Amino acid sequence: MLLSTQIVFVKMLLQVCISNIRSILVSSLEKVFCWMGMSAGAGRAARIAHRGEVVNHAKADKRASSPGTVTPTSVNYHFTRQCNYKCGFCFHTAKTSFVLPIDEAKRGLRLLKESGMEKINFSGGEPFLQEKGDFLGKLVQFCKQDLQLPSVSIVSNGSLIRETWFRKYGEYLDILAISCDSFDEDTNKLIGRAQGRKSHLDNLYRVQNWCKQYKVAFKINSVINSFNVEEDMRDHISELSPVRWKVFQCLVIEGENAGENALREAERFVISDQQFQDFLDRHSDVTCLVPESNQKMRDSYLILDEYMRFLDCREGRKDPSKSILDVGVENAIQFSGFDEKMFLKRGGKYTWSKADMRLEW
Known about the structure:
By secondary structure, this protein is of the alpha/beta class. It is built from 14 helices and ten strands. Strands 7-6-5-4-3-2-1-8 form an eight-stranded parallel sheet. It has a two-stranded antiparallel ribbon with strand order 9-10. Strand 9 and strand 10 (319-323) form a beta hairpin. The protein starts with a helix and ends with a helix.
C-alpha cells in the first residue's frame, strides 16, 4: 500500500515538473519570437526611414552583374531646347527654356562617369546659344579635364561658333559635328536651317577650317528628307573630308515634330525606306558615311533632356524617366528604352578620342 502511494506521488511530481518545463519553454519561445518580430519591424522601419540614404551594396552589386544592367557608355545630353534655327523636322524642339545650373549639370555628369560613361555628346537645341558658348565650353573642359573622359563631342548648327571659343576650349574637345542637310543654300532655307541672310554653308566651311587649325575632329550630320533626298553630295563631302558623315533618315516623334502639341510638322519631310536606301546607294563610295535609318535611331541612343531625364523613344514619342539627379543613373536608365545591341550594330562605339584617330592636322 505504501509503495503504491509513493508511485502515485512520483507520477504527480513528474507531471508538475513537465508542466513547469513546458511553460518555461513556451514563455521563452514567445519572448524569442516577439523579439525577432520587433527586430524585423524595427529593421523595416529603419529602412523606410532612411530610404534613399542607405545603399544596399549587396543588391547593387547583384544588379550591376545582371544581364539587364545598362552601362551609359555613350550619352547625348540635350542641355537646352532653345535654338536660333527652325528646321521643320526637328525632333527636340524648344518646348521649354530651362537650363540646369552649371554645378548641377556637372554633378549629373560626374554621376554618369561613375556609372561607366566614356563619351559625352552635347546637343540641343543649339548648344552655343547659352552664355555665347561659355556654358558649353565650361562643361566640355570639365568633362575632359576633371572627369578625364576619353571622348567629348558637340553637335551644333555652326552659326554661333567663333574662333575665340576654339582658342579657349578647343583642346578639350574631341569631335565637333556640324548639321548640314544640303549644299544648296535655297534648300537649307526651305528646310529651316538658316538665320536671316547668313550663309549656312559659309559657316560650315569656316568651322571646318577652325577644327583643323585647333586640332578638333570634324564631323557632318545630315538629315535626309523630302527636300534633299535627290541631291548628290559626294563632291562636297570629299572636299570637307569629315572623319564621319552621319546620315539620318527623317524621324517623326509624337509631341515634338508631329501631333497636336508639337511645335513642328515633319510629315511633309518624311521619306520612305526605299528613298533613304536610294540616297545611300548613290553615296555608297563615300567611305566616311555612317547611315542611320529610323529603326536604328529610335532606341539605340541614350538621350538626356534638359532636366537630365532619360528619354524613351520606343513608342514614337519621348517618355521621360525621373532625373538622374533625383534617383541616380542606375534607376533612371532602366526607363531609357536603350537597346545596347542596336547601339553596337549601328556602329555607336568607334574610335572617338582624337588622341587615337591619328589625324593629320
